[in-house]
Amino acid sequence: MKFTVDVVISLKKGVLDAEGEATKKALRLLGYKNVENVSSKKVFRIELNAKSREDAGEMVREMCERMLANPVIQDYEIRWAD
Known about the structure:
Blueprint: E1 2-11, H1 18-29, E2 41-49, H2 53-68, E3 74-80
Antiparallel strand pairs: 1-2, 1-3
């Protein structure tokens, strides 16, 4: 069976998001003074074949732990695509 998931990678709370801070600063310089916070996230869309949704989920979790996310500074969320 074919499955599609989105893996959303974000920084853990307390880790400095330099890209988000730079973007916030740039938006404020452009006149968007009401912007209070900007955070960056990365999304991977993965299509894979697996016997079941559970097997697909386990494979994607393993991908996240082994390569897609740095567990020291990043969190990840797996979202099943429709």
